[in-house]
Design goal:
- By secondary structure, the protein is an alpha/beta fold.
- The longest helix has 25 residues.
- It is globular and about 60 Å long.
- The N terminus is likely disordered.
- This is UspA domain-containing protein.
- It comes from Halanaeroarchaeum sulfurireducens.
């Protein structure tokens, strides 16, 4: 059974994940998402987007039971896999702000935005988009908390902005170091690969690699989840792919 939501006052938990789900229509949760949160404590946020001129209370009176039923069906599926969760339904005019506020309120260290693409038959694979100015320690600790006890495979990927040899070598050192740290924290080395590319424009290089994976991991230096979720990379991913996205929050 889900626990009632309350503001989190305990020390941060790196395996706590916010899972926003649109409940204004039928809900279908991919198997990819189940695999990603199997070792997590999930905050299941059911949101119903409403027009600016509408009242949240009015929509809740009219559609509240329907929204709760749809969200509970998702919760039941999580429970069937032994996944601990909390749940809440919100009627909102601002999806981005809602996600940002909920992640802060419940101290969720990452956010999973479900995609719609069917999972592959192979082991679940994620591509981790790495930037040197990201919170690399947080990326390592969060990925290990989420995936050490899973079969998920990860590619650490960096798309360089130029062909500077010194920068290329230092980035390779960074990627090797991240892979080593993940192994030390419990992710088998045969489930981790790394790669960097200097051939082409950064965003296009990312988009060319994403189709080979089931989900995308983004870790940014900007502490605003809203900026990360609706930034250039995320917007293009949403427009051109149907991949699930995992955004790792910066340490704040």
């Amino acid at each position: 059974m889900p626990k009632p939501l309350s503001a989190n006052t305990t020390p941060e938990s790196l395996d706590r994940v916010l899972l926003p789900v649109e409940v204004s229509g039928p809900v279908s949760l991919q198997e990819t998402v189940i695999e990603m949160v199997r070792s997590s404590k999930v905050v299941l946020l059911g949101y119903w987007s409403i027009p600016d001129q509408s009242s949240a209370d009015q929509h809740r009176d009219q559609f509240g039971k329907e929204a709760e039923k749809r969200l509970q069906a998702v919760g039941d599926r999580l429970s069937s896999h032994g996944i601990e969760f909390q749940k809440e339904v919100v009627f909102t005019k601002n999806r981005g702000g809602l996600i940002d506020d909920a992640a802060n309120k419940y101290d969720c260290q990452s956010v999973v935005l479900p995609g719609t693409e069917e999972p592959s038959s192979r082991p679940t694979r994620g591509i981790v988009l790495v930037k040197p100015n990201a919170d690399l320690d947080r990326i390592v600790t969060t990925l290990s908390a989420l995936f050490a006890d899973s079969d998920v495979e990860l590619l650490l990927f960096h798309a360089a902005k130029n062909k500077n040899k010194h920068l290329y070598d230092s980035t390779e050192y960074m990627l090797r170091g991240l892979a080593g740290q993940l192994t030390e924290r419990g992710i088998d080395s045969d489930r981790i690969e790394w790669e960097q590319s200097i051939e082409g424009e950064r965003l296009e290089m990312i988009l060319s690699r994403v189709p080979d994976f089931d989900f995308v991991v983004l870790g940014e230096s900007d502490p605003s989840i809203r900026a990360r979720i609706f930034g250039t990379v995320q917007a293009r991913l949403a427009e051109e792919t149907e991949k699930t996205q995992l955004t790792i929050r910066t340490s704040i």
